[in-house]
Design brief:
A: 560 residues; Aminopeptidase; 15 helices; elongated; B: 204 residues; transmembrane (chain B); BOS complex subunit TMEM147 (chain B); TMEM147 (chain B)
Chain lengths: 560, 204
């Protein structure tokens, strides 16, 4: 009986111990999420281009904050430099980057108002300046290897207060280090990992023409736009103009023609092929894969292809980029039909010829991929010069408000009208098929809603999964208007590899310095000693206090 | 560094109790048992108080002063006094003098209060990177609380344990007890009805 009781007691003690251990573990694991400020931050892209490292190579951040201007020769290897883009001194940054000075980290503050349409001449001039600074900054950061974390954040009240505080601290002399307190910026993310086999997804829709008597093979016209983006901050590159505007235009063109093609009476004698391609920033890699997947007959049936690229922020002039000489009969015909409609719309369309150099891997325009497989193609764009690699691909400044809805509206009208005249053989006749206020008019709210959606969705291909919502949405939209929608998944060709962790949360802590803690300890110690002495003296008398510090032998002697 | 800060705050919060125990004759007469008993009584009292608060008080919807609720709050405040009465008079203590008894009870009471109210926030908060003055103030508050509890125990011991009380002091003693028990209601009245705000603590 007693033994059983004992055994039970042992069990009870054991369970108490385990509960105690559990409680201790729980207590020790209490997460410390008590930062004064938590800010969403977006990391600079990190990628390898044929093995060479580019972009920000680190993600984890745990250093004190500092703000410009710095004393020359100051050691910033343990400082996170906060730079507001609004007052950015590009040469300063360039110096640091070129001389490969180590920084603890770099936090670039983007102005909030790149999201708001600014009114008034002065503001828009400021905005133009900001835009050029942003694009310069972007090109600078994309093409260098930075061995420290670089983050973008939007200015807000909290972070501005921190910045002002940091500046005040810096102005009073010593920069913030562990011994003077200040702010500590902490981003705790795992080490960025290489994205495993990034995929690119092409979506194609097909509107079959009316097969008439005798003829079995109808000619095809392709309308193509590349939908993905590339920018300094992958989580921020929404690419409203490049190439959100082209995507929107393509969707609206598909919608308009689907209305015409729904009835056999108005169905044209051309097949229409709509292609939303990915991999645009990487030499139109996706377009190449897409074209390769065509069978011979389809490829030969394509009469010409129109690629839409950045058609959302032009004033009066669009460019038709071609790679075949303008004397080519197809080119001539397309150009003439475009310029005819353009004249009616009161805009001009210029023709730019740029020869393809087959040995050069750079593909500047999407139509060059078509030309490489001997398909006649043109690119309609507001850009007059071919962009360099990773340029004009939807960067930081390319947000919703730089896009002009009326410009997209006119681009759509231009393309759709000239296509329709070609399909129905109305060339040279002044017939508006898609006249405003008719049932076939361009729908401004449709354009606007798609533009808004695309301007909210970062679309850097390596970070889009195969079933990403935006891809599903584009696919669904195309399948609403066209038949036989195909989705093609491919992997990006070996040159590029990307690293994940594109967004994180930055915690800003106001920290005390070590000296403060030491001083506090000294003060507390003396307070306790004083308290002790005071209590001993008042309750037992001064002699007792003195006796306490006597040698023990005296006690022995007392005992003896 | 942050563990350092935690350590500092813990010293400030719990140090004075230990110093008080070791510096005064309490340690010589080995009154730790009395203090522990008082702490256990405090625990029970707090539990009863919390249950009463949760049962009888409504969460104030607006910042107005409600006399009925405040009266209830004051009555519930008297549970503390009852607990202290129990600890001082009903517990069987080893034969120690009244003088040491109230000190031991007050000390145990204050220590239990500190542990219950301050240890967990200190552990969770003071180890964080973020620096605030809050935990240092909390430690100072624990110090003043120790003084308050000791005086409260002294008051109780005067009221209930001393046989030959000076006649003139009796009303003062009871008035003090009354003020102590109704202090939360008074401050709440000041804050809500008269719009008085206690001075803000300095921030860094």
């Amino acid at each position: 009986m007693a033994g059983r009781w004992k055994g039970g007691g042992g069990e009870v003690v054991g369970s108490i111990y385990s509960v105690l251990a559990l409680v201790l573990i729980l207590v020790a694991c209490v997460e410390l999420g008590d930062a004064a400020t938590a800010v969403d931050v977006y990391r600079l892209i990190q990628y390898d281009l044929s093995g060479a490292p580019y972009g920000s190579r680190l993600a984890g951040l745990n250093h004190h904050a500092g703000a410009a201007p710095f004393a020359p020769g100051a050691d910033l290897s343990r400082t996170v430099v906060i730079l507001p883009v609004r007052e950015l001194n590009l040469t300063f940054l360039q110096e640091y980057i070129i001389s490969k000075q180590p920084l603890g980290g770099l936090l670039l503050l983007l102005p909030q108002d790149i999201h708001h349409k600014s009114a008034g001449g002065n503001k828009s001039r400021n905005f133009g300046l900001l835009r050029s600074i942003l694009s310069e900054l972007e090109q600078l950061l994309i093409h260098v290897n930075l061995p420290y974390p670089v983050y973008f954040a939007y200015e807000d009240d909290k972070i501005n207060a921190v910045l002002a505080d940091v500046r005040r601290g810096d102005a009073t002399g010593q920069p913030a280090t562990a011994t003077t307190g200040g702010y500590k910026l902490v981003v705790s993310t795992p080490e960025p990992r290489k994205a495993s086999s990034p995929t690119i997804t092409n979506i194609q829709g097909w509107l079959p023409g009316l097969v008439g008597d005798g003829t079995t093979q109808l000619p095809t016209i392709a309308v193509v736009a590349s939908y993905d983006t590339f920018g300094a901050a992958p989580a921020l590159s929404v690419g409203s103009d490049s190439n959100g505007s082209g995507v929107v235009a393509l969707l609206e063109i598909a919608r308009l023609f689907s209305r015409l093609y729904s009835s056999p009476k108005t169905r044209g004698r051309y097949n229409l092929l709509f292609g939303l391609t990915s991999g645009g920033p990487y030499n139109y890699n996706g377009t190449m894969k897409w074209l390769r997947s065509f069978d011979q007959r389809l490829r030969e049936s394509i009469e010409y292809a129109i690629c839409l690229n950045s058609v959302g922020s032009w004033n009066n002039e669009l460019w038709l980029h071609v790679s075949k000489p303008p004397e080519n009969v197809y080119i001539k015909q397309v150009y003439e039909s475009f310029s005819e409609v353009a004249k009616e719309l009161g805009v001009t369309v210029g023709l730019k010829h740029k020869k393809i150099n087959i040995s050069n891997p750079r593909v500047a325009w999407e139509h060059e991929q078509f030309s490489r497989v001997r398909v006649t193609a043109v690119t309609l764009s507001e850009l007059s010069v071919a962009p360099e690699l990773l340029q004009s691909t939807g960067g930081l400044y390319d947000t919703r408000h730089i896009v002009d809805e009326t410009a997209i509206h006119r681009s759509i009208k231009l393309v759709v009208e000239s296509l329709a005249r070609h399909i129905y053989g109305y060339e040279g006749k002044n017939i508006q098929i898609f006249a405003d206020n008719s049932s076939l008019a361009v729908n401004p709210s449709y354009v606007k809603s798609w533009l808004d959606l695309l301007s909210r969705t970062p679309r850097v291909a390596p970070f889009l999964s195969k079933s990403d919502p935006i891809i599903s949405a584009l696919k669904k939209e195309l399948s609403d208007h066209t038949d036989e929608v195909h989705v093609q998944h491919e992997s990006i060709d070996g040159m590029f590899s990307f690293y994940d962790s594109t967004r994180a949360t930055l915690n800003i802590y106001q920290v005390a310095s070590v000296t403060f803690d030491l001083l506090l300890l000294v003060a507390l110690g003396s307070y306790l000693i004083l308290l002790f002495s005071f209590l001993v003296i008042t309750t037992r008398g001064l002699d007792d206090l003195i006796n306490m510090f006597r040698r023990p032998p005296s006690r022995k002697a007392k005992a003896a | 560094m942050t563990v350092f800060h935690f350590f500092n705050c813990a010293i400030l919060t719990f140090g004075p109790h230990a110093v008080y125990y070791s510096a005064t004759p309490l340690s010589e007469y080995d009154t730790i048992g009395t203090s522990v008993k008082a702490a256990i009584v405090y625990l029970g009292t707090t539990l009863v108080k919390l249950i009463c608060l949760a049962t009888f008080l409504k969460v104030p919807e607006n910042d107005s002063f409600d006399p009925y609720q405040e009266l209830l709050k004051a009555l519930i405040g008297f549970i503390d006094v009852a607990g202290l009465y129990f600890a001082l008079t009903q517990l069987v203590h080893r034969n120690i003098s009244q003088n040491h008894k109230f000190q031991a009870v007050g000390l145990g009471w204050a220590f239990a209060d500190s542990v219950l109210h301050r240890l967990a926030p200190l552990w969770v908060g003071a180890r964080g990177l973020e620096f605030t003055w809050e935990y240092i103030f909390q430690g100072i508050e624990a110090n003043s609380n120790l003084v308050l509890n000791l005086s409260l125990a002294a008051l109780g011991s005067l009221m209930w344990l001393r046989k030959n009380k000076p006649r003139t002091l009796i009303p003062i003693i009871y008035a003090c007890a009354g003020v102590l028990a109704t202090m939360p209601s008074i401050t709440s009245y000041l804050r809500r009805a008269l719009g008085w705000h206690p001075p803000k603590r300095p921030s860094m």
